[in-house]
Amino acid sequence: MIRMAEGPFAVAGIDDLQWGRPDLDAALRGLDPAIPTLLLSHRPEIFPEAAAREIPLTLSGHYHGGQIKLRLPGGDLSLAHMRTPYPEGLYRIDTSHLYVSRGIGTTFTPVRLNARPEVTLFQLT
User: Fold this and answer.
1) Does pLDDT of 60 surpass 90?
2) Would you say residue 59 lies in a domain?
3) Helices within 1-123 (DSSP H only)
C-alpha cells in the first residue's frame, strides 16, 4: 500500500498471461477493497476481468504500440492491432481504465514505424 496526502492506494501485479502463471485472485488477496488498486500486467488482455472487479487503473504494455504499423484510411494496421483489442493507449470500461504503453523498447526487430516510443507520466488524484 502507498500512502499519499489524498489517501492510500494499493499496487498489485500479475505474471505474464501467456508465459507465466497469472493469478489475479492471489494478487488481490489481502487488499482492502475500499482502497483503490493500481494493477500492473505485462499484457492488457486482463482488463475485462480487472474492470469486472472494479479495479480503477490497469497499466500494461507488451505490444509496443504495434512497433511496425501501417497507417491506412480505415485505421492503423499492425500485428498488435490484429491480435488484441488493446494495442496502445487509453481504454475504459465503466469506471475502470486501462493504459497500454508503447514503451521504449522493441521486440525481435530493433525497428519502429509509426509507433513512436513513449514514457508516460501519470498524475494520480
Assistant:
1) yes
2) yes
3) 24-28, 47-52, 79-83
Please indicate, yes or no, if residue 122 is contained in any of the structural domains: no
Is residue 83 within 8 A of residue 41, CB to CB? The reply is: no
- How far is residue 110's CA from residue 85's CA, in Å, rounded to a whole number? 24
- Which set of grid coordinates corresponds to residue 83? 491480435
- Read off the pLDDT of residues 82-117 as tens digits, 9 standing for 90 and up: 899 999 999 999 999 999 999 998 888 899 999 899
Q: Which residues pair with 56 in a beta bridge?
A: none
Counted residue by residue, the chain has a size of 125
Taking the CA atoms of residue 26, residue 105, residue 89 and residue 2 in that order, the dihedral angle to the nearest 10 degrees is: 40
Is residue 75 in some structural domain? yes
pTM: 0.89
Asked if pLDDT for residue 66 goes beyond 80, the answer is: yes
